[in-house]
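Hey, I was hoping to borrow your eyes for a little while. I've been puzzling over a protein and I'd love to understand its fold better. The fold is given in discrete form, as structure tokens running alongside the sequence. I'd be grateful if you could look everything over and explain what you see. No rush at all, and the record is pasted right below.
>
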Amino acid sequence: MSPKDDVARLGQRTVTHVDAASVQALDLEAIEHEPTTALIARGAAYAREYAAIEHKPALLAQNIAVVLLALRKQHDDWLGRTHVYRQDAAEVYRAASIDDKEQLTRLQANVRYHVGNMLRRHLTPRELRALELHDASPLERQQDRRATDTAILRATKVSAEVTSSTPRTSQVTKKGAQPEAVPRQGSVAGLAVKATADHLRLAQAAKALVAQFNADVIDDHMTDGQRAKLDEELAEMERKVRSLRRHLKKRRSEG
């Protein structure tokens, strides 16, 4: 008998279709004794429904955002700040009768994200500036944050590797402590090669970090005190870089 015949034979006990609107969480104890064919049919039903709805939540949120933008345009209120627009927008969600407050909050946050992206597509840079909005969309700012986080993580990792791979030119041992074992010549050579590569990678990571500084953030979001602090940190970085470059220039001139 084929698995298909088995599924047909099991009848009511076999789940062959699920509806995302009414699906509930499964307990292992509730299904662990089902026949293999029934479990396969059940799993396939969940997978089928997932594939059918996978992209629909994002699409629905985007469509809500388009509706809200249409309301803003009708009210000549791209920022969505007038009382009449806010009433209409609130009515959209009230009419949806979403009882789960946390779910509603997540939906509204998702819609705001799409509204921000769509505003940047529909308005010109001049119109955005007139509304005191940044040219960068929420999506672009999110990508910038990810790039910054990646650069920081990479720099942290490379910095740790540089610390561990840099050969020690002198041994400083605390009183009473056991001196560190001296590596063999071959391992020292290998360590030096790795240290060289790590230092070059560290320079690349540092350059990537500096590239993440954004003039818009400095101009629009920092206080004068924060700008002064950033300037101090950058000045210290500049001094260290200048010192390293002088050292490099000296070594290169020595041949």
